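Design request, tokens follow.
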């Protein structure tokens, strides 16, 4: 899946800790943004969270995403 890591007008991350709506697509193998490529397929939820934050999330959103991942017990 390819997307922008940041919504410039709203000034928010497009990579979010949780999705509140129903999702009908299968797990994506990779998430590609202008920040890089996060490998997701075959990895644990913990590894996926780490990869998304480190490799695909916008730098301005990473601290908030790390905090959310810690709150969800996905990272130490």
């Amino acid at each position: 899946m390819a997307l922008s890591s940041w919504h410039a007008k709203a000034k928010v991350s497009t990579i979010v800790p949780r999705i509140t709506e129903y999702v009908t697509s299968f797990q994506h193998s990779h998430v590609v943004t202008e920040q890089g490529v996060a490998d997701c397929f075959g990895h644990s939820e913990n590894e996926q969270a780490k990869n998304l934050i480190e490799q695909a999330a916008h730098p301005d959103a990473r601290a908030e995403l790390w905090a959310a991942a810690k709150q969800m017990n996905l990272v130490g």
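Comment from the thread starter after seeing the answer: thanks! Strands lie at 6-7, 12-13, 30-33, 36-39.
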